[in-house]
Design a protein that fits this description.
The chain is an alpha+beta fold and 111 residues long. It has a single domain, classed as HIT family, subunit A, CATH 3.30.428.10. It contains 2 helices and 3 strands. A 3-stranded antiparallel sheet has the order 1-3-2, covered by helices on one side. The longest helix has 22 residues, at 26-47.
Length: 111
């Protein structure tokens, strides 16, 4: 999500037509859970998150996706939810590029 106040990632299973977690096969569910855990650890280790918030909402986009948000006790919304918290402050391109590059390295993803 493009809001520099909160490091907010969205994981989207690469399966068409899914809207709910129960629609994943057991194997795909295990993969998704492993990716959530890996991403959570990266956000804590690399970005010093105090708390990881994980949510599966679909009120606006029904396609199955998981929000993983790195929270810090001094972020502007703490302890409130980040969803709908004021107007987003977008990342500078160089900032988002650096975060994406790091996550690609950590997940061993090549362009």
């Amino acid at each position: 999500m493009n809001d520099s106040r909160f490091l907010w990632c969205v994981l989207v299973p690469m399966k068409e037509g899914l809207t709910e977690l129960y629609q994943l096969s057991k194997t795909d569910n295990n993969i998704l859970n492993s990716e959530i855990i890996k991403l959570s650890k990266i956000l804590v280790d690399e970005f010093h998150a105090d708390k990881i918030n994980i949510g599966s909402l679909g009120n606006i986009v029904s396609q199955l996706h998981i929000h993983v948000v790195a929270r810090k006790v001094n972020d502007p919304a703490w302890p409130l939810p980040v969803w709908g918290y004021k107007k987003p402050i977008k990342y500078k391109k160089s900032q988002s590029d650096d975060i994406i590059k790091l996550l690609r390295i950590k997940f061993n993803i090549r362009k």
